[in-house]
Amino acid sequence: MRETPLAVASGAGRTLFGALALLDPPTIAKLADFDLDNPSARFMTRLFGARDVVLGAMTVLPSTRRFALTAGLLCDVLDATSGARLAAEGASARAKLGTIGGPIPFIVAGALALRAGKR
User: Fold this and answer.
1) Do residues 18 and 67 touch, judged by C-beta distance below 8 A?
2) What span, in angstroms and rounded, lies between the C-alpha atoms of 61 and 118?
3) Contact status, residue 72 vs residue 108, Cβ threshold 8 Å
4) How many domains does the chain have?
5) pLDDT tens per residue, range 54-78
6) What is the rounded distance in angstroms from the CA atom of residue 22 to the CA atom of residue 93?
7) Residue 5: what are its φ and ψ, rounded to 5°?
8) What is the reported pTM?
9) Structural domain of residue 114, as residue ranges?
């Protein structure tokens, strides 16, 4: 896959987001209205962070870029789908925005980067 600025920017953004989730879970957890008093919420935030650090780093590397973009896109679609299910279960407006809206920029960037890499 040829190098595209969007793919590299997407990978760098995912890595930074993931690092923030790993190092400072409350900041990210607030976006999704997670219960910050619950240690499980901080743990789950770190899990997402770890996943995003790995996928982001792999997206920046040319040898793993296409795989990472595809895997990231699938993860993001599943994240948004899970957010929609949470919304249907009566989540707060902030939780809906964070869990459905949060993955959307990554979905768009991943899809565009994959498309640009085929040219």
Assistant:
1) no
2) 17
3) no
4) 1
5) 999 999 999 999 999 999 999 999 9
6) 24
7) -60, -35
8) 0.87
9) 5-118
